[in-house]
Every structure is written in C-alpha cells, then in structure tokens.
Amino acid sequence: MFRNQYDNDASTWSPQGCIFQVDYASEAVKQGTAVVGLKSKSHVVLAAVKRSPNELASYMKKIIRIDDHMGIAVAGLTSDARVLSNYLRTEAMRSKMVYGRALPVGRAVNAIGDKAQINTQEYGRRPYGVGLLVIGHDDTGPHLYEFSPSGVVSEYYGYSIGARSQSARTNLERHFEQFADMSLKELIVQGLRALRDTMPQGKQLDSMNTSIGFVGADAKMTILDGDDTQPYLDLLDEGDAAMDTE
Amino acid sequence: MRTATAVAAPIEAHGHNHWSPYVDNGGTTLAIAGEDYVLVASDTRQSDGYAINSRYEPKAFVLSNNAVLGTSGCVADAKRLCEVLEQRAQLYQHKHDRQISTPALARLLSNTMYNRRMLPYYVFPVLAGLDSEGRGAAYAYDAIGSMERVTNSCFGSAETLIQPFLDNQVARNNQRGADPERLLTRQEALKIAIDAFTSATERDIYTGDYLEIFIIDAAGVHKETRELKHD
C-alpha cells in the first residue's frame, strides 16, 4: 500500500471498495508478536510470544483475564487493548449484576465488534489498532473468536494473528481435526507447537517470552507466565525428541 | 379582608400506615477473630414480622478474596450490598492484578455504605478475613459504614442477647483474674458460637432453623452447618 488520496480518514471509500485507514489499522496488528488460539470439546487455549522492548524492560502482557470464564490475547497497540479489555470486564460484571449469569462469549465479542465499527465510519475517529483472540466458556461450550480493527468478528476452531502468524495458521490447518478430543495438556502443547513456527530464526520459546492462557468447563480462566510455562515447554521438547527417535 | 380558604388537614392516624422502603428480615450474625483464623456464624431464618419467609436463606456470603461478609437487617439490601462489594473487589483485582486485602476491603465497604448516607443500606454487616499479617480480622459496621476492627461482634435480632455473652466469654470483660488479651482457639470459638445461637434461638423468635459457620484461615474458607430449633 502506498499513500493515496483516499486514505486520510475512515469516512472515505476508495474506488476499489477499501477504507484504507481500516486496512492500515490491520497492519498494526501484524506488527504485534504472534498469538495462537485453539479449542477442544471442553477447553480453549491461548499461547503467545511476549516481546520486550529492550533488555531493561519487562515483557509486555499478551494475555488478559476478563472474567472467570473469559480471556483475551492481544496483538497490536497494547493501549487500545487495555481500553477494550476494561470495557469487556465492565460488561462481564454488568451481565452478572443485571442477569445473574456469566456474559455469553459471542455477545461480548459482538459488543466490541460494534464498538470498533463506529470508529470505521464516524468522521474524526480512528480505528482500534489491535486484534484480539477471545477465548471463553459459556453454556454453549468453549469458544474462540477473532476480533479485528474493522469490527469483523469470526469464530474458529484454531487461529493465529500477529507477526508471522501464517506459519502458525498453516500448522493449525494441518492438525485441527484432532483438537476436539485432546486433553488440556495436549491442547496446550499443540498450541505451543504452532506458536513455535512463528519464531524467527535463532529464537526459541522459553519461559521468559511465552505466555499461556486457558479456560474450560472445569477450569477458570488461568494465565501461566514465567516458570509456570516451563512444564509445557518441556513437554514440547520431549515431543520433538520422541519424533526424532521414530 | 381575606377569607379563610385553607382547609385544615383531616385529623386521621395516617402516620401508622406510612410506607417504609425497609423491611427487617430478622436473624443474627456474629464474628469471633483469633490469632490465625476468624469465625463467622449466622442463622438462616428469614422472617417478616410473625411470618417465616424461609428456614434456609443464608445471610453470610463468601467473597472472591476469601473474606466473608456476614449480614443482618434487610435481606434485599444485604444481597445487593454483597454484589456491589464483590464487583468493587473484582475491579480492584483487575486494576492491581492481585486480590484485595481484607483491610482494604473493609475500608471499601465503609465508603460504599457511606455513599448511601441519604438512603442507607439497612444492613449491619460484619466483614471477616485474614489481615496482611495472617491474623484473624473482623470489622463491624453500622448502617452508614461506621467501622471498627474488633475481636468479637454480634448484630441482628438477638444482638442484645449474644453481645453481652461475647463480651464476657470472648473479651473476658468483668472477669476477675482473666487475661483479656488472650485470643480464643478455634475449638473454643466454635463452641461459644454454637452455644450463643442455641441460647438465642430459645429466646428470640427471629433466630433459629439452621446455623452456618464459616471459618477462614490460611487454608481458605471452611463452612459447617448445624441445626437449630425450628420453633
């Protein structure tokens, strides 16, 4: 894409039917490190690569808890992600107060989809510069959704967004038919396997730069960071070793 | 000359029928704090005047940070207060990425109640949990949030029967030779709570049916239930 006369604001269509500001916002998502999501019959898992701006700084938070039954992974502008996650958290609590039940995941995602759409149509506003993978478990089972700056929301068995996410998507496409019956542990390792494909040459997944999140019928939204991710990274290595010896 | 046009208000005893937004649903709640635990006991009878609404409607609620909010007074207000408090505790957790401490929650409860100074929550709560050093903490409030940290407290329809008993047996007031600083063990506190309620049940019509006892310590919140007389 190059600068053109149709990309100044979100209320201008191009002759080809693009709103360039929205497309540019999607580029911001592609700048973020990869996140992977996948689901089985009973659980949904997120795996994310955390980036650290420099050696002095801590790693950025990639997975955020919304409620006991819902969480999100973030790729893109973290500040926009914070605003959206605060909104989701408020909506989740409001649902419990008003209706006495946990917020259905689909409804939550459509709510932020609608919010994002406003920014693609109103003059003077800019689209959100963040993509989300939303996971949750409600009375219709486990769910994985993708939210994008355009406001488009899609549900998936497995998906990935962020830098070099196509490699992860290819990995998920090859294996997604086996996800349904996997145990939580297997699902997490499978997610890490897909996530690993997004790493650049010479870089590894380790306990410092990996973040894991999961939720399910019997598991509240849980986020694993640091040493807590090591057992699963070890299983990933063991799996590789087993494949080598075959 | 001005003719008297004002009509004098008819002298009727309408003051008796005046509608009140408040209902006292009866029941009693007590709390005893120890060295490394705190106990909350409340009966489960819900009444409205001479009628019993329910024999089992719990009045003490476990909050997500392992604190227990024991209530008495108007059940609708108590339930709502608990929901609002839980929401604010959740907001705290989202903002600070950790659970709210009991002393912070205690202050939060006080503020929440005082915000309704002009139409108070008709609730006399007691908030129990472990403080930042792991010691048992109980906070007692009035309906507009005036708070005090205590080692023992009782509110509700039988408070006038039980509180003096606690003052003597838990705080060891007015006992010659007793050590008022010594805190009770769990077994002692449990026994006193059960005895207090079985006695109060005999005398107070609004107290009875079942007794729920929550014991909070480092391992979490443990609940026990006992039967009380149903009459």
UniProtKB/TrEMBL annotation, chain A:
Gene3D superfamilies: Glutamine Phosphoribosylpyrophosphate, subunit 1, domain 1 (3.60.20.10). One of its GO terms (molecular function) is hydrolase activity. One of its GO terms (biological process) is ubiquitin-dependent protein catabolic process. Its EC number is 3.4.25.1. Keywords: Cytoplasm, Hydrolase, Nucleus, Proteasome. One of its GO terms (cellular component) is cytoplasm. Residues 6-28 form the Proteasome alpha-type subunits domain. Its main location: cytoplasm. InterPro entries: Ntn_hydrolases_N, Proteasome_alpha, Proteasome_alpha-type, Proteasome_alpha1, Proteasome_asu_N, Proteasome_sua/b. It is an enzyme of class 3 (hydrolase). It is found in: Cytoplasm; Nucleus. SMART domains: Proteasome_A_N. PANTHER family: PROTEASOME SUBUNIT ALPHA/BETA. Belongs to the peptidase T1A family. This is Proteasome subunit alpha type-6. The gene is PRE5.
UniProtKB/TrEMBL annotation, chain B:
It comes from the Eukaryota. It is found in: Cytoplasm; Nucleus. The keyword tRNA processing does not apply. Coiled coil: none annotated. One of its GO terms (biological process) is proteolysis involved in protein catabolic process. InterPro entries: Ntn_hydrolases_N (IPR029055), Proteasome_bsu_CS (IPR016050), Proteasome_sua/b (IPR001353), Proteasome_suB-type (IPR023333). CDD domains: proteasome_beta_type_1 (cd03757). Pfam families: Proteasome (PF00227). GO terms for cellular component: cytoplasm; nucleus; proteasome core complex, beta-subunit complex. GO terms for molecular function: hydrolase activity. Keywords: Cytoplasm, Hydrolase, Nucleus, Proteasome. Its main location: cytoplasm. Belongs to the peptidase T1B family. Component of the proteasome, a multicatalytic proteinase complex which is characterized by its ability to cleave peptides with Arg, Phe, Tyr, Leu, and Glu adjacent to the leaving group at neutral or slightly basic pH. The proteasome has an ATP-dependent proteolytic activity. Component of the proteasome complex. This is Proteasome subunit beta. The lineage of its organism: Eukaryota, Fungi, Fungi incertae sedis, Zoopagomycota, Kickxellomycotina.
